[in-house]
Amino acid sequence: MIQIAVLGYGTVGSGVVEVIDTNHASINKKAGEEINIKYVLDLRDFPGDKIQEKIVHDFNIILEDPEIKIVVEVMGGVEPAYTFTKRALLAGKSVCTSNKELVARHGAELLEIARERNLNYLFEASCGGGIPIIRPLNSSLTADEIDEITGILNGTTNYILTKMTEEGSSFEEVLKDAQEKGYAERNPEADVEGHDACRKIAILSSLALGRQVDYEDIYTEGITKITADDIKYAKEMGKTIKLLAFSRKVDDSFYAMVAPCLIGPTDPLYSVNGVFNAIFVHGNVLGDAMFYGSGAGKLPTASAVVSDVVDCAKHLHRSIMSFWSSHKLELTDISNSRRRFFVRVKGDPAADLARVRELFGDVEVVTVPGLDGEFGFKTGTISEAEYKEKAAELGTVINMIRMRRVKAGR
Ligand code: NDP
Ligand code: HSE
C-alpha cells in the first residue's frame, strides 16, 4: 500500500479525495499498488466529513511519517507551499501539485531537488486543468523543436467572455458565478488580469524550450478592459474575443505575451468556449497539434493531480525525465512583434477617417449600428512599437484588441 497525504482540503483537495474514492479499484490497478490517503492537512476541521479523522494541522506529522511516500500539494499560494514542498522532497517524498504560481516561480529548483533524489515533482494540473499537456510536452513531443505555443489557458476568463458574448451577461455577474463553481483563484484578480495565464504560458514554455522562462518578463493584459461594446464589434466582424497566452519563435529568439485577441471562425481556438481550455502547439517536424478539455474545476483538475499520483506510484524510486533547466531564457521585447490591430476611436468616419489613414495607411473601417460617436478600424500588419506610436499620435483611441492570424499553410 502506498500512503499519501493531501495538503489543502479546498476545491481541488476535496476533488482528489473524491476521485481516489470513486475510481479506487482502477486507480490501484494502474498504480500497481493500493493508494491510501493517510492524512489531509488543512487549517480547518471538517466535522461530519469522511476525512475528518484524517485531518491534521501540523505539517511535521506528515513530514516525519516514513510511510508517506507521496505528498499532494493543493493549498495554493507560494508560502507555505514552497517550504512544505521543499521539505517533503528533501525528506524523500515525491510531490504532485496543481499550484501553478509555485511551479512558475520555483519549478526548476524543485525539479532539480527531486531529480537529485530519484523522486518526482509532477504538476500536470498546473496548466489547462484536466487537459494532459505537461506529460505530452515532456515525453511525446520530444522529436520536435517547438516554435509556438498558443493557448486559452484560463477557464474563468474564457467562461466570462463566453457568457458575455453568448448571453450578454455582465462581467461581475459571471465572475461571481465562476467563483461559485470553483473555477476562480482565491484572488480572482489573478484570472481577470491575466496573471494566471501568464504563469501557465511560462511553465509550458519553460518545459518546451528546456530553459527558465520568467513569468515576470511576459507582457500581460487581462480582460478587464473588454466591454460589451467591444463584443458588439467582434460580432460585427464575425469574430470572437479570447484571452490568449502565447510564446513564439521569431528568427532565433522567443517572445511571449498574454492578451485578449480577436479570432475568426477558421481558427481552431474559435470554438473553445466556457470553462474549456485548449493549447495549440506547433513543432518544426510535427506541424500542428491541439490539446482540448476542461480547464478548471474540482474534478477535472483532481483527475490530472491523481494521474500524477499514479505516475509517482509507478516511479517511486525513479525520476521521470523533464527538460527544464534553471538557466534563464531571455525573451525578446514584444515591440518588434507584428500583427493586425483592431482599434476603436472616438469620432465619425466621414470626418476622422482621413487622419486615421494618414497615420495607419489603408485601414478597413468597422461600424456597429447604434454605436454613435465612434468607429472601429482594422490596421494592416504592423509592429507593436508602430501601433503604440501611431495610436499616441492619433489620441482618440477608446480600445485596441490584437488580431490573431493563423499562419497560411496551417
Ligand atoms: P481552495 O482555496 O479551494 O483550497 C485551498 C485549501 O487549502 C483550503 O481549504 C485552505 O484552507 C487550505 N490551506 C491554505 N493554506 C493552508 C495552510 N497553510 N495549511 C493548511 N491548509 C491550507 O483552492 P483550490 O482548491 O481552488 O486551488 C488549490 C490550488 O490548485 C491553487 O494553487 C490553484 O491555483 C490550483 N488550481 C485550481 C483549480 C481550480 O479549478 N480550482 C484548477 C487548477 C489549479 P482555508 O480555506 O481555511 O484557507
Ligand atoms: N483559476 C484557474 C482558471 C484555475 O480559471 O483557469 C485552473 O488553473
UniProtKB/TrEMBL annotation:
It is an enzyme of class 1 (oxidoreductase). Residues 132-310 form the Homoserine dehydrogenase catalytic domain. GO terms for biological process: methionine biosynthetic process; threonine biosynthetic process. The active site is at K200 (proton donor). NADP(+) binds at L7, G8, Y9, G10, T11, V12, G13, S14. It comes from the Bacteria. It catalyses: L-homoserine + NADP(+) = L-aspartate 4-semialdehyde + NADPH + H(+). Belongs to the homoserine dehydrogenase family. The lineage of its organism: Bacteria, Bacillati, Bacillota, Clostridia, Lachnospirales. Keywords: Amino-acid biosynthesis, Methionine biosynthesis, NADP, Oxidoreductase, Sodium, Threonine biosynthesis. NADPH binds at K100. L-homoserine binds at E185. Residues 8-124 form the Aspartate/homoserine dehydrogenase NAD-binding domain. GO terms for molecular function: homoserine dehydrogenase activity; NADP binding. This is Homoserine dehydrogenase. Pathway: Amino-acid biosynthesis; L-methionine biosynthesis via de novo pathway; L-homoserine from L-aspartate: step 3/3; Amino-acid biosynthesis; L-threonine biosynthesis; L-threonine from L-aspartate: step 3/5. Gene3D superfamilies: 3.30.70.260, Dihydrodipicolinate Reductase, domain 2, NAD(P)-binding Rossmann-like Domain. Its EC number is 1.1.1.3.
